[in-house]
Automatic annotation (TrEMBL):
Native organism: Bucorvus abyssinicus
Transmembrane segments: none
Domain PIH1D1/2/3 CS-like: 32-128
Pfam families, sorted: PIH1_CS (PF18201)
Protein's name in the database: PIHD3 protein
GO CC terms, sorted: cytoplasm
Single annotated GO MF: protein-folding chaperone binding
Domain of life (superkingdom): Eukaryota
Amino acid sequence: FQVKSENRKIIWNTEEVPEGSEFYDIWDCREEPEYQILFKQCVGTEDVFFGMSRKDSSTACCEDMVIKIKLPETKYSDITLDIQDKILDVRTPKKKLLLHLPYRVDSKKGKARFLSEEETLEVTLRVIRQFDFINLA
């Protein structure tokens, strides 16, 4: 048995820890809110009527991901939102949502708004894919 680490007290490398595990708390018994993931794409007449681009209706051709989270009896000031490349973490006094996103997103260019009439938090995130230059050309 050979230990590769220089510091023998380290039991695993940071690369071995799954992404998002730092947010997981087994003792937090807050309820998970209802949520919905939608995809948006920007299309013009050349896409819809003429089919001139390579876009289709699949998520591979979508530019944005919209997450709608129902937060009843919540004020805007009570919401804590943290977005990482593949993780969305929303916490309120009564609800908690740790969501592993289906695609990598640009966490710096996202937009969030709270629709108080609908009691819904709407988060719009730009999707980042390795081969977007092919899909969205």
